[in-house]
Amino acid sequence: MIVAEVVAVDSVHVTIICPHCGKFHRHGSNGRIHERDYGSRVPHCTGDDSSIDHEQYELITTARTIRKPVVSRQDLKAWLPEQKRRRAAILEQRRELEATEADRRIWAAIRELSKRWDRLARWQIATTAGVSNHFVTTWLRQHGIRFVEGRYQVIQEHKAGPDLTAIFGRAI
Ligand SMILES: [Zn+2]
Fold first, then answer.
1. Which of 9, 10, 78, 95 is 20 to 30 A from 122 via CA?
2. Domain ranges of the chain
3. If the chain, 172 residues long, is cut into consecutive pieces of 10 residues, what is the mean pLDDT of each piece?
């Protein structure tokens, strides 16, 4: 099971850094301040994070866990830089995954559409791939494809590669 590091325990709460969203979450401690392991819990990520994978995690303490009858906001400040670092890493990883997924969908859309159409319109690619027109424009530019004389054509073949060059054709 995925591990959630316990940053602080008091008589009411166990505070962790969530391995899914990188934010602090609190769970009940049942008055036990000195346990090593606080068992498995269901994450309760909120906002944009509420739709992500909600695999249960195991609440594990470390030598760095703060243990006090009452943990204050001030106590948690010591963990803020670490929390922010983990949150940033998770968001970065998520962005990379989304970009990879968008790339995969654009490739699939172009391959599919090119079977039926000689000229691919940007809106067709965007609609089929489920991304914005702007994203398609950026993607095409990155792949050496520009709108030239009424249609998208390859102007930088080394960026487009053989598959896209065959589909879009070379600008003369
Ligand atoms: Zn979370």
1. 95
2. 2-71, 98-168
3. 95 96 95 95 87 87 96 95 97 93 96 94 96 95 95 96 96 84
165 CA distance to ligand 1 middle (Å): 44
* 148, β-bridge pairs: 151
How far is the centre of ligand 1, averaged over its atoms, from the C-alpha of 87 (Å)? 10
Residue 107 near residue 137 (C-beta atoms within 8 A): no
DSSP three-state, residue 12? coil
Cβ atoms of 45 and 18 within 8 Å: the answer is: yes
Domain covering 98-168 in this structure, CATH number: 1.10.10
Query: 72 alpha carbon to ligand 1 midpoint, in Å?
Result: 20
Distance (angstroms) between ligand 1 centre and the Cα of 105 equals: 28
**Which residues are within 8 A (CB) of 99 and not within 5 positions of it... i.e. 6 or more apart?**
none
Helix (H) or strand (E) holding 135: helix 133-142
Query: What is the 8-class DSSP label of residue 47?
Result: G
Which residues make up the environment of ion ligand 1, defined by Cβ < 5 Å? 18, 20-21, 43, 45
pLDDT of amino acid 118: 86
